[in-house]
Design a protein that fits this description.
Elements lengths: L2 H12 L6 E10 L11 E2 L1 E14 L4 E6 L4 E6 L9 H15 L7 E7 L9 H16 L6 H16 L6 H8 L4 E6 L5 E5 L5 E7 L10 H16 L9 H7 L5 H25 L3 H18 L5 H12 L4 E4 L7 E7 L3 H16 L4 E4 L7 E2 L6
Parallel strand pairs: 4-6
Antiparallel strand pairs: 1-3, 1-13, 2-7, 3-6, 4-5, 7-8, 9-11, 9-12, 10-11
Helix pairs in contact: 2-3, 2-4, 3-4, 3-5, 4-5, 6-8, 8-9, 10-11
Bound molecules: alpha-D-galactopyranose (GLA).
Alpha-D-galactopyranose binds next to helix 5.
């Protein structure tokens, strides 16, 4: 939906859009470093051109009216409301409102219409995009004066407190700190980060959306996190970042097989991110790809967040000679990320959907990746 359609929707639901401002925040990819953020490890994300766009108009009242134009649903709540909407989708915006208020921002009432092209449930962080779009807008519209990291943390707190997912910081961080043409390596223990220009000559990144929706709300994601925390606790460290292979092996007899395998994956993923950082310095994309396959194996067998469909997509990529492939994001369906040599591109985009529909009787979707910038205001679309 383009911004003129968004404006039409605004006028249809709330009247004149004059005085509304326009905001965007991106979804993300993650090259490597999965389920490492809440373990104090490294992640390697990039913001993408797919984003959420919102038109927001302060009203001077204490009421909020929202219209999610893609989903064709709306909701209203008061800023004084302690419970918030029941529909999960609106709890992201409600949560951001409350979190910003808690951080001392004098949020006023507003009307907002929003839409986006970050596929829902695909592991591309549509929810972080939504949170960051509104957090960044509120910060400017209501003179919050918070820095970008604080806005990302407000988004993360929204997931924890209003949605029930104890996520790490990766998604909100990259939505607030992405830079065109660059991936970011973030150390989730220290908060230090550096930009890595991403121009892999001879290769492209492509996502394949299995179109199987993962269910992160509920327990599977939080269960994984709890396993890691149990092991860290027994090892006497804050997070698994500070647990060595030696410590893990000596703990093995006192761990359940499941917890052991979860921790083994996380320690391995730390090593793989390091290997990828080194390889990128040498433009060695073959090594990057090999590490991606190894990550998938760990996510599938030890961390158990893959599924039949995404395993199939990665297998097919391997069989076709694709440089690297793995499931991306929280897991339980969603996308695979593929590092594809230019010469394989045409075969890949025609063959993969064909094989997938033959296997499962349903369609998958190829999503091109271009690395874009962070949450921002779009003044060119304002009246
Ligand atoms: C989800 C969470 C992130 C991260 C990934 C897995 O996207 O929101 O914090 O844990 O899963 O890497």
């Amino acid at each position: 939906m383009d911004t003129s359609q968004l404006r039409q929707q605004f006028e249809q639901h709330f009247g004149s859009a004059t005085g509304a401002s326009c905001w965007m925040a991106p979804g993300r990819i993650n090259l490597i470093g999965e389920h490492t953020d809440y373990n104090g490890g490294f992640v390697f994300p990039g913001a993408v051109s797919q984003c959420i766009t919102a038109l927001i108009k302060p009203t001077g009242s204490r009421d909020v009216r929202l219209w999610a134009a893609d989903l064709k649903i709306g909701c209203e709540f008061s800023l004084n409301d302690e419970q918030g909407p029941d529909i999960i989708h609106f709890r992201y915006v409600y949560g951001i409102v409350r979190e910003m208020m808690e951080r001392g921002v004098a949020i006023g009432g507003f009307d907002a219409v929003y839409a986006g092209d970050v596929p829902l449930g695909a592991g591309m962080s549509s929810s972080a995009a939504l949170e960051c779009c509104f957090a960044n807008a509120f910060n400017e519209l209501f003179h919050g004066g918070l820095d970008r990291l604080s806005l990302a943390l407000a988004g993360q707190a929204t997931e924890h407190k209003y949605v029930g997912i104890n996520c790490g910081i990766m998604d909100q961080f990259i939505s607030m700190h992405g830079k065109e043409g660059c991936l970011v390596r973030l150390d989730c223990r220290s908060g230090e980060y550096s930009y890595f220009p991403w121009h892999p000559t001879g290769y492209r990144l492509l996502l394949v959306d299995s179109c199987v929706k993962h269910q992160l709300v509920g327990s599977p994601y939080n269960d994984r996190r709890q396993s890691c925390e149990r092991v860290a606790h027994l090892a006497g460290v804050m997070t698994l970042r500070d647990c060595s292979w030696q410590m893990l092996e000596s703990l093995k007899p006192s761990l359940s097989d499941e917890d052991y395998r979860r921790a083994k994956y996380v320690l391995g993923e730390y090593d793989r991110v390091m290997a990828v950082s080194d390889a990128l310095q040498r433009n060695d994309y073959e090594t990057v790809g090999q590490q991606m396959y190894l990550t998938h194996e760990g996510l599938s067998k030890d961390y158990e967040v893959s599924c039949e469909e995404t395993d199939f997509l990665v297998d097919q990529a391997r069989k076709m000679g694709v440089t690297g492939a793995r499931i991306m994001g929280g897991g339980f369906g969603g996308c695979t990320i593929n590092l594809v040599a230019d010469r394989l591109y045409d075969t890949f985009v025609t063959e993969v959907p064909l094989r997938y529909s033959q296997q499962f009787g349903r369609q998958c979707r190829i999503i091109p990746v271009s690395i874009g910038g962070s949450a921002s205001r779009l003044p060119q679309f304002e009246l």
